Amino acid sequence: MLLEVARKAKADDPLKAEGEVIYIAGLLLEVAHQAEAAP
User: Which domain of life is it from (predicted)?
Assistant: First the structure.
């Protein structure tokens, strides 16, 4: 699903797509850290 979004965005605007992928990856890392911190 994430790759589909990236592929679609890339077709529209490669630079914007790259930024979106980095942003989504950052959100995933944030969620992972919160899950780790949870007791």
Answer: Bacteria
Tokens at 15, concatenated: 């630079």
Q: Using the structure block, give the residue that is written with the tokens 């979106």.
A: 20
Residue 20: name the closest of 33, 35, 28, 32 by CA: 28
Q: What is the dihedral of CA 5, 11, 17, 21, to 10 degrees?
A: 30
pLDDT tens string 6-34: 677 666 777 777 888 899 999 999 999 99
pTM (two decimals): 0.53
